[in-house]
Amino acid sequence: MRIDNARHWKLEAQPMPSDRIQQDLEQRAQQQIREGRLPAATPYRTWGGHGSNEPCALCDVVIRSDEVEYEIETMEAPGRRQYRFHFLCHDAWQNACAQVT
Fold first, then answer.
1. CA 75 – CA 45 distance, rounded (Å)
2. Across residues 9-31, what is the average pLDDT?
3. What is the number of domains present in the chain?
């Protein structure tokens, strides 16, 4: 909040840090979709569970066993392919997919 004087004040809207993180993840997902590193299509199957100590397909950070992991399976040529995501990364990827289609 910025106060110009005692009678008038102006609220300067800025994204919250979590909003900025989400925006950064969505931009990264859009770029990886354009580069063909992530699919843009609806997955064949999606499930969640405990992290597998494998890297996230979007951010490349390991998804620890005490974190939630979303795993998707796609039917890409020549066969099925699996991708693992953190919760926020999966959400960002879904939002990026919606913008592409």
1. 9
2. 75
3. 1
